[in-house]
Amino acid sequence: MAITINIYYQGINQNARKFAEEMISSGVVEEIRKEEGNLRYEYFFPMEDKETVLLIDSWKNQHSIDIHHASPMMAKITELREKYDLHMKVERYISDASGIPTTDQTFIKK
What we know:
Elements: E1 3-10, H1 15-25, H2 28-34, E2 38-44, E3 52-59, H3 62-70, H4 73-83, E4 87-94, H5 102-105
Antiparallel strand pairs: 1-3, 1-4, 2-3
């Protein structure tokens, strides 16, 4: 059962995008992706909101998230959030072990 967290970083003057770019260029993202239990760590940019960046952050379980939160990596992330004066909206989802229902699959082109 994976846990996915959507984090919407919001700022001004394209600071959310600058934050994501620095997270990638500094190697922080690469290090997070190597952490035990990390399944996904990707940034997306909403087309209609130039001041928001969406992070999709997915982990194997809560234990993996707890280890990540206790790691030195969090200090780096926090430092960059402060540098760019970002605010966050967070959503949390737990995967459905049964997968995508057959009725929904008819709408998915493969």
